[in-house]
Amino acid sequence: SDVTLLTYVFENFRDVCFHAYNLNSVWYYTAPGLTFDAALKDTGIELDLLTDYNMVLMKEKGIQGGISQCCKGYCEENNKRMDNYDSESESTYLTYYDINNLYGLGVGRDKNFRRERKGVYTRSRSRLSSASLVSVNRSRPLHNSHSDLLLCPENKTPPGGKHK
């Protein structure tokens, strides 16, 4: 039955996690939590404990929700693996990504920038990442329209898209 098959799959997953990372997947609420601990073990990175209450509050204040998506009403695949492949047309592939914290993924990558002069950032040679608390003054109408989003999200039309 499906339940029996699922138990075998889960027990296999549990064994793989335990043998690869010495982590018991049953003790984690989500796969991202397990993945994060596995990455820390694999890289040997030790995170500093936040002992300053104001630092904890700053980190908590930076946690925001939202949605990032790219939607198109209809897509058609055309590549050599398809039965009805049209060699005259451009090859296209369909890919589906289900990613939690897509915005966080984008802003969390390669944060090694240093400030050269006001408003201009260039890539630094340092591989260290950091977080900064900044104060930005915005007019009240902008404040209200931005209250549910991070300050600099982009609203772009994807290539071939018709709607913004």
From TrEMBL:
<protein>
    <submittedName>
        <fullName>Uncharacterized protein</fullName>
    </submittedName>
</protein>
<feature type="region of interest" description="Disordered">
    <location>
        <begin position="145"/>
        <end position="164"/>
    </location>
</feature>
